[in-house]
Amino acid sequence: MQKEYILSGFGGQGLMLAGVLLSEAGILDGKNVSWIPSYGPEMRGGTANCAVVVSEEPIGSPIVDNPDVVIAMNLPSMDKFEPLIKKGGLMVFNSSLIKSTPKRDDLTYVAVPANEIAESLGSEKVANMVMLGAMLKADGWVSTSSLGKVIEKKMTGSKAKFIPMNIAAIKKGEEIAG
Amino acid sequence: MSERKLFKGNEAVAEAAVRAGCRYFFGYPITPQNEIPEYMSRRLPEVGGCFLQAESEVAAINMVYGAASAGARVMTSSSSPGISLKQEGISYIAGSLLSPLIVNMVRGGPGLGDIQPAQSDYFQATKGGGHGDYRLIVFAPASIQEMVDLIYISFETGEKYRMPVMILADGVLGQMMESVEFPAMKEPKDPKSSAYGVTGAQGRPARVVKAFDLDPELMYNLNEKLADTWKKAEESEVRVEEYLMDDAEFALVAYGTSSRICRSVVDKARSEGVKLGLIRPITVWPFPKKAIGKAAGKVRGFLTVEMSLGQMVEDVRLAVDGKKPVYLHAVPGGLIPKRDEVLAQVKSIIQGKGV
Fold it and tell me: What Cα–Cα distance (Å) separates residue B21 from each residue in A34, B47, B283, B326?
């Protein structure tokens, strides 16, 4: 079995990093992973996305045309990827910034007020972790426990103090999706 | 056994080269391979090596020429337009029988082109992009792990044949991340131990490293020697992977990134009952002629899938030698073939509905 993800948002919202963490959690779960960014002439504040494949088999194409799951942090991301998701797929969107209503009836939608939740936890920067927590819970292919381990492993030194906030953000996301 | 790490392709290239004993890097920035020099600029000083950003690609390849002449394990990396600028130096290096590593993270062309992944430098890499009769040993990895493993052996392979080695990858392989396991750190070779480098002639006859001789008889001899070397490399260094070819009725041929898409095409085709297989050249020079020639005896035809207007397809046709039809799925300009479109073409050919 294989699942294909696209994580998309404004540059600076932490979607590239979220994709890397998702990939590392997939490795901890014992799966094959690939991560690839959109690396065109991107600019600060423009949209950026990455594609992640998590598979039990060797991964063919790392390019994702029709994802199983999309995280959309802003409206341009939702507009771009909503039509491309596989039938029966999952769209987790940031309802703090996206006010439009879902356009398809063959997808599962999870609305996450990620910015508000992140601010209530102390920093808007963890909005990406709220989204990731919600997505993992709703999707179920990569475990949140592995994600937690990855965060604990990666955030060392001066960054170690941010571990609890990130873990709390993931938990909040899980609650929303649960 | 070391642990699996999530690594970006470009950074993995650099780390693999360091572990293979490379201590010198000369280059000039260009997307989509900038993480290679960036990584080297930090890593090489840690291991007592030298990173130098040259003033141009032309300067960089000639620095590589110099270091290789002195017996060092040395590399450069660039992307298509930059590799074009290096062609003169590569020809000189090949003519001087030196074996540095050259990495090309191919992007769309011609000209300055774009910065997206492409495979349109195949001719340049495999047929001798500069002047004169020369070849490079050209590896075309399809995953980051494979890229690491090939770089790890590339210096020994090059030194064995005294030929330059090229890694022909693309923007996808440079920019993507996958989990990799790195091989152990090799002890770097002392340049002074080189059997042909100009390392100081005290106590031995002087050596000359050059790609020049006014006497055509001597230049003829050098070319004969090159031809002899190629023959040996063609006998021993061909690498190819066959995927589900045993019972295949039709074959895809693809390398690098497009071969990964083709693998997905094969899986999809098989799930729909179409007996499709894949031949994946890992060395594009020497080219796996035998594997393709053998397959020509049993499949109904071939479809070559390339991120170019069709370059490798000519080598496939030579290997098939007219025995079966060879078709082309060409996606040039920096775009990537789509699984369903390749599969649709396969089905159309098999059902006799046209190419």
Answer: 28, 10, 22, 42
